[in-house]
Design a protein that fits this description.
Blueprint: E1 4-6, H1 15-27, H2 43-50, E2 77-81, H3 86-98, E3 101-106, H4 112-119, E4 122-125, E5 143-146, H5 155-162, E6 167-169, H6 170-178, E7 182-187, H7 192-205, E8 211-213, E9 226-227, E10 233-237, E11 252-255, H8 269-280, E12 287-292, H9 296-307, E13 312-314, E14 317-319, E15 331-338, E16 345-352, E17 358-364, E18 367-374, H10 379-396, H11 402-415, E19 424-429, E20 432-436, H12 442-455, E21 462-465, H13 470-475, H14 477-484, E22 489-493, H15 508-514, E23 524-526
Parallel strand pairs: 1-4, 2-3, 2-5, 3-4, 5-6, 7-10, 7-11, 8-10, 11-12, 12-15, 15-16, 21-22, 22-23
Antiparallel strand pairs: 8-9, 13-14, 14-15, 16-17, 17-18, 19-20
Helix pairs in contact: 3-4, 7-10, 8-9, 10-11, 12-14
Length: about 525
């Protein structure tokens, strides 16, 4: 077990505590039992339980003479700044599996950190120069890896620079980590976590000893958000935020969709398209692009290949001979999927099944091949499964084995239970099922409401919505209002600001007032 060190105390934010407020609002003191892993523990209670608290204040500045990350032999000490987030915690967990010594720091405790502590990481609550020094102040990490959310003036970053420790942003670390693998990078504005998790789960069930990292907790992954194996394949959830995926060089790139997301980073949808075009430039020669042909935004990438860059797209092959925008000599094959029959792989006859999920007929270029069954609901998950099927068959390559391969992947697809906080059943009150979902974009809200209607077609649907960041709420407020109008009743909470302040003087109450239709009657606001 690792060590927990506290140097500052902050309040916690967690879905569990938020939902406890909802419980109190609706049901007074009616007891409600949530899954134990939904609520982050009080940091003081946790430290008391572990009996391993110390406060470090002394600092000794010394020059680190040798800061080399030995990826081959996997030796050395790696420190992660911002380790409490989903992305960096997964990288830290993989580093532990690889044999590195791991430490990390964050301002507040998160549920991701408990598994790291149990696995042997040394964790610090609060940022301090003492976090990146050995007990006697004479030893420093071989590398520091920083989250995209960490500013350059962070005290640990500045101290690492001063003593010569190499500092990696998450994107560069991922590039170094995956460069020797057959990288399958799952990207897109929505559905990355579920698609990457489903893909890794299916490949593992088919006997692939792969490595995988996703940005969410997956109940069917033994280590929560990673697989660590000795095979050549590496499945990675590739995030466009802050250009994080631009350092990757995938053998297979998956694009689930394209939408205006991360409005604090991207000025408009064209900016999102631009960064995805740069990402596609990174596909290795002879590689593959698996893309949703039904997504208007994703489809625009293919249209721009044909219209704007001088590249030719015919017969599913992109050949780049001269365009500076896309780089030189990048040849890759395109595979499309969706509901429309013009796609290479598509679903037809989609219908709900007795598990609450979906059944459909898998077709390839007009030929029905197999019936696929999913236990997770929603047409968006049908699309996610099509991305998985197209990718698995692309990796296998031999079309003569496609029927056998489809037969092998049908069972794990039907067994996949989904990702935490993606239509996740967390409790029941007098027969009323309570689901938690991370949906924080209008497209995602619509998808989860459709999934709920599919599973419970004759039930009233009450939505408790917590907006995530003021910038997203202000820019997409009309789309949020339209999406939420599909519910029977809506509760809008105070905004979870994350890294922002309310510079727009707009809040959850304003969103609640803008929803038109039945939900506008009897609207509540929880402060």
């Amino acid at each position: 077990m690792g060590k927990l060190v506290a140097s500052v105390s902050n309040s916690l934010h967690s879905p569990g505590s938020f939902l406890e407020k909802i419980e109190t609002y609706f049901f007074g003191n009616i007891p409600l039992s949530f899954k134990s892993n939904r609520t982050a523990p009080s940091i003081l209670l946790f430290m008391k339980k572990k009996n391993s608290v110390s406060v470090l204040t002394n600092c000794t500045f010394k020059r680190n003479e040798e800061c080399i990350v030995d990826f081959k032999n996997r030796k050395g000490w790696i420190h992660f700044v911002g380790i409490g987030g989903s992305g960096l915690s997964a990288l830290a967990k993989l580093a532990l599996k690889q044999g590195f010594e791991v430490s990390g720091s964050d301002l507040v405790w998160s549920s991701y950190m408990e598994g790291l502590l149990e696995a042997g990481a040394n964790l610090h609550i609060g940022h301090s120069v003492s976090n990146i020094q050995g007990n006697d102040g004479s030893r420093f990490p071989n590398a520091v890896v920083a989250s995209s959310a960490i500013p350059q003036d962070n005290v640990e970053i500045l101290h690492a620079k001063s003593v010569g420790v190499p500092i990696y942003k998450r994107d560069y670390w991922l590039a170094k980590l995956t460069e020797k693998y057959n990288l399958i990078a799952v990207s897109g504005s929505h559905g990355k976590s579920t698609t990457a998790s489903m893909l890794a789960y299916v490949l593992k069930a088919m006997g692939d000893d792969l490595t995988a990292i996703v940005g969410a907790h997956v109940p069917q992954f033994p280590d929560g958000s990673i697989f660590y194996g000795g095979g050549k394949n590496f499945v990675l959830e590739a995030d466009e935020y802050d250009g994080c995926f631009l350092g990757l060089s995938p053998s297979v790139a998956v694009v689930t969709n394209l939408d205006w997301e991360h409005v604090d980073i991207f000025e408009d949808e064209d900016a999102v398209k631009s960064i995805f075009r740069r990402f596609l430039k990174q596909i290795r020669v002879g590689g593959h692009l698996v893309i949703c042909g039904d997504s208007q935004g994703a489809r625009s990438l293919l249209d721009q290949i044909k219209q704007d860059t001088g590249l030719k797209y015919s017969g599913g092959v992109v050949s780049n001979q001269s365009s500076d925008l896309w780089g030189q000599g990048h040849d890759y094959k395109i595979i499309t999927y969706g509901f429309s029959s013009f796609n290479d792989w598509y679903a037809e006859s989609v219908c709900p099944n007795v598990q609450g999920g979906s059944d459909y007929i898998l077709c390839e270029r007009g030929r029905p091949l197999a019936q696929i069954s999913l236990q997770i609901p929603g047409v968006h998950n049908v699309l996610n499964s099509l991305a998985v099927i197209a990718t698995v068959l692309t990796l296998i390559g031999d079309k003569r084995q496609s029927h056998e391969s489809i037969a092998c992947l049908k069972l794990p697809l039907s067994k996949f239970m989904g990702v935490s906080r993606r239509f996740d059943l967390i409790g029941t009150i007098y027969g009323c099922h309570i689901y938690d979902d991370f949906a924080h974009h209008p497209t995602e809200v619509r998808a989860v409401l459709q999934a709920a209607r599919q599973r419970f077609p004759n039930k009233a649907l009450i939505v408790v919505f917590q907006p995530h960041t003021y910038s997203r709420l202000v820019v997409l407020k009309d789309d949020f209002a339209n999406a939420l109008s599909e519910a029977d009743q809506v509760v809008v909470s105070a905004v979870y600001a994350a890294r922002e302040t309310n510079d727009w003087n707009f809040n959850g109450k304003d969103l609640a007032a803008s929803i038109i239709g039945p939900p506008s009657e009897g609207m509540w606001l929880i402060n």
